[in-house]
TrEMBL record, chain A:
<feature type="transmembrane region" description="Helical">
    <location>
        <begin position="440"/>
        <end position="461"/>
    </location>
</feature>
<keyword id="KW-1133">Transmembrane helix</keyword>
<dbReference type="GO" id="GO:0007165">
    <property type="term" value="P:signal transduction"/>
</dbReference>
<dbReference type="InterPro" id="IPR001932">
    <property type="entry name" value="PPM-type_phosphatase-like_dom"/>
</dbReference>
<dbReference type="GO" id="GO:0016791">
    <property type="term" value="F:phosphatase activity"/>
</dbReference>
<dbReference type="InterPro" id="IPR052016">
    <property type="entry name" value="Bact_Sigma-Reg"/>
</dbReference>
<keyword id="KW-0812">Transmembrane</keyword>
<feature type="transmembrane region" description="Helical">
    <location>
        <begin position="26"/>
        <end position="47"/>
    </location>
</feature>
<keyword id="KW-0472">Membrane</keyword>
From TrEMBL, chain B:
<dbReference type="InterPro" id="IPR036513">
    <property type="entry name" value="STAS_dom_sf"/>
</dbReference>
<dbReference type="InterPro" id="IPR002645">
    <property type="entry name" value="STAS_dom"/>
</dbReference>
<protein>
    <recommendedName>
        <fullName>STAS domain-containing protein</fullName>
    </recommendedName>
</protein>
<feature type="domain" description="STAS">
    <location>
        <begin position="34"/>
        <end position="85"/>
    </location>
</feature>
Amino acid sequence: MTTPATTSPNERQIGRFSLRSFRAKFMLVVGAAVLFDLALAGGIGIWNVQRLSRDATQQVGDGLTTATEEYLQTYIDTTAFRADLLIERVHSELATLATTMQTLIDHPEIQDAVGDTVAGSPEFSSPLAYDAKGGWAQNGAGVPSAVSVWGYLLDENRQPVPKAAEELKKSAFLSLVGPSMMATGAPKLQIYYVGPKDASIMRATPYSEQAQTFDLLYPGHNEGPNFWDFFFPGVYEGWQGWIDDPSSKPVDSNIVTTAPYVDAITGELIVSFFHPLWSGDRKELAGMVAVDITLEQLTSLVESLEISETGFGFLAMSDGNVVATNSIGEETLGLVSTDVSGQGVTGVNRNLKESSQGAIASLELNATHDTVIEHIFLDQGGEEVPYLLVLKQLNPTNLWDGAGITSETMTLGFVVSEREIYQSLIDATDNISAATARILNYQIIAFFFSIVVVFLAVYAISGRITKGLSRLADAARALQNKDYSVRVEIPTRDEVAAVGLAFNRMAEEISYHTENLENLVEERTRKLETANSEIVALNARLKSENSRLGAELDVARRIQEMVLPRRSELEVIPQIEIAAFMEPADEVGGDYYDVLFDGEHIKVGIGDVTGHGLESGVLMLMVQSVALALQEKGDRDPVAFLDVLNRAVYKNITRTRSDKHLTLAFVDYFEGKVTLSGQHEEVLIIRANGETERIDTIDLGFPVGLEEDISPFVATLVMPFGPEDILILHTDGITEAENEKGEMFGIDRLSESAHENRLKSAKGIAEAVITDVKSHIGGYKVFDDITLVVLKHR
Amino acid sequence: MEISTNDYRVWTEGSTIHYEGTMRLSGTDAYAPILEAMNSILASKPELITLDLTSLEFLNSSGINLLAKFTIEIRKQPEVGVRVLGSKSIPWQSKSLRNLQRLHPALELTIS
């Protein structure tokens, strides 16, 4: 028989490269292990590289920051030093002039002589000429210095008042030294002398038409009261204060500086340095010498600072006004220029405090003389850009602030974009990042390369390893498709090879069995046939045996029925009403009862032969025959009767080599008396008055057929038996009838049942008792013959 | 020796034979193995054979016949004593066992 090989979903064919194949699993496991290993190693590598790059960046950054800050500090210190030097140079030149002039003041005779001499020389001095338009007197050109006597210092003759004339003489010395001073030292715009308040003439070198210029620029200056109060209010009083209290000097220097202002003549940003002159007794001011310089040198120093590409310097007054910075600085610092008009001179204001950059506007300029480095953020087109701000204060000076003399400390500042400083660092970081990325890329490439190599290797190796298994699987599939010739060849010497060997052996066996199946079937069939014929024969024998046994039983039953007394026999008996009931068990037992009546005597026998079947039946027949014979013979002695019966039966049993015996008892009735003899079950007597007597028959006899002579054991019991008295005989089939629980019916139930029905006829009593027995048995098995004989006196 | 079924058990301890349960065997043939065991003890001629029936609830007539026949066999060998142990609470014993003593007066019957 062949059926097409079908595959259920559970045993789908596993392809060689299916994910469920052993090889795929093997490769997956090894691949996953390698993948994990590589990923771990790669991850650690990348992490280390990244950490290295981070650390390197940090260190380089720190180093760069330190170096940059040190550089900037040195640079700003140097620059501040240079700026201070520039100012100091002007200061010292002015101080030299002032000291010389002071010496002349302290020596009036020499001053007079020098004045007279200079005034007398046309080379150095020219006569005053009154200018009607301006209302002042000024010397003519062609001499080293121009001297102006303001209208309020002229008398009615338009000649200088004596005091002014004296000042003209005193100041003549300037013509002598002024040109040489102008020609040497720091570049100066002009050197000039101003007399004391009561004679504030002005002499300046080189010569210029200064009064005309003043008229043009500062109208009303010629009205007085004096030069000081018009141009520099507060300075004079400041100096006077110093005389009274030298400690009121804001800075330990006699020189007072103006804030930078736009020069009326040149248009340049200029600064004036004033040096006071004292009277000989040092109690009064005697005027001053002053120098005007452009800030060009200072501003060019600041503006030309080169601090990286977009870095710049600035110089700010303590009030935040920036006096010098370049255009980048102005833009970066967010400065707004505003013109400031003051009394006398015009200034310029580009104040840090008004910067559009918050970080700049809030700068503290006067905090310390030390160099300060700050990191700030400036807004660059909406972006917060980090900047490095370095501040350094210049030496303090006395400043005329337009009202009085205060201390002024200018601050030099450097501003550098941190991005620029750290550009190299950023570049380095970028390089490191690039290197890291490169390493990462190499790692990834190496990783995939490794994976490919490993997978190829694993694939190759797994092929070898799983080859045996694949072959086994193929062979098993072939076997499934009923190709029993298949054998596997496994070259390895491992467990798979062992399985292969076993498989081959099994395949061989299957092959053998399959190929020899027909022979085997034939052989088996033959064996079965033989067995069958044996069974048939046995069955036939069994059947004949059964029928024999059945026949035997039939015979036994027949004998039992045959020897029992007929109902008609019983009905004719006077005095005693006798009812008998016998029901054989499935296997006929050996119950016996008989009623013998010879017209006078009634003899009722009851017995139970051991065992069942034909032999028991025959023994019963034997007993019945002997009893009947003895009764017919008229043997009235119950003891002799039993003795003879026993001898006959015993001898017959011995002859027939039977091993059976029986219990047997008789009840003889004659003239109101019953005589009991023989050993059997208890005999029940229910008297007419309802009293019940149970008579044990053990001592009245002995089993029949067991011993040759039982006469020593046989006895009789004579009892009255009157009208309505009832006597009941039974076999153990009644008392030993069991119900499902194994409970026997028992003599007590029998006694009760009979007693309850005692008023009925003998037949009625028998029927009632049997009904009770049967209801007790219920559906349970009937083990033994049931026999009941009821005698009732009529 | 021990013969055991769901209903009964017969076993020997030395020259004592114990019977237990309900013996309702169908005939002499069925009792043959038990008789054989009993005879084999008798064959060894012990001084005293004890039949312990105190736990034998029921014995049918074929069984009683067996005991009677065995008693007759013992009787033929006066040097072998026999003792039968019975129980008063079992009805068939008090009735049937006395017959054994009648068969063989030397039989020692104890019904307790």
